[in-house]
Write a structure and sequence with these properties.
This protein has 305 residues and is an alpha/beta fold. 42% of the residues lie in helices and 23% in strands. α1 crosses α4 and α2 packs across α3.
Length: 305
Amino acid sequence: MTIHKQPLSSFPSVRQLRAFVAVYHAGSVSAAAQELALTQPAVTMLLRELEGKLGLNLFDRHTRAIHRTDAATRAIGYAQRALAEMEGLTTSMNELAGLHAGRVRVVATAAVAQAMLPPAMRRFLDRHPGVSLEIEEVGPADFVHAIETSHVDFGIGTLEAPVAGLREEVLIRETLVAAALPSPAFAGGVPMTWKQLSALPLVTVRSGYGIRGRIEAAAREAGVELKIAHEVSLLATAVALAANGLGVVVVPPSIVAPEKRLVTQRLMRPTIERVIGVHLRRERSLSPAAEAFLQVLKQGEVQGM
């Protein structure tokens, strides 16, 4: 018979095992009772219950003393290991609940991971140095798949449309800006229409990647055709090309902020908003550590670049 098929009532309880171990080492019921802060009758009852479950006497009782039986000598190791495992279980769970241990696994689109997460990670790890924080970077095309199939707690990035089975907690809403090196044609600090943008060489991600769909939709709404100079797979690469004078890049302000060489102009007619959020599987609960990191993100600390 396997352990899974036996009734729970047939197994020793923690209290019975503790009483047995205490009497075994103390050598008397009275000393064990004092150690356990129980009465002598209570300890005697626990021993009798344990012996009943095991079907053997653990001690030979005399008027003034008890003596260990061979069964007790054989059982003590099992009892001590069982109690140690229970204590280890409790300690481990307390460490997780108290954020002294644990692991948080997050998947993020590359641009978000590079430009936005490091400050939030630093704040979180300063508070909870015992927690391991793992970030997996993926391209926009692989973002949803990574959340659904990887062993991650949640994803951070942008969804172009709602996804069944995922729920979103919004972190940032941003209006897209144009960014480029300062020049007579691009001074920065003033609004720019999409018609004005169409006269400049554009560096952008390829069709089907990230915000390209929103850029194309805005151009159609404005009735203009954009002058695509360079296409890349990652938004961070597009920003790097713009920073080297190869064109104008259309990005959320948070993505371009670390690149100090670039100036920005807010795009209008139309204005396009991008939402960066935390995306979680609806059926999955978060560990205390993952919930704590989520709270750091939701408090806006992710923006503290």
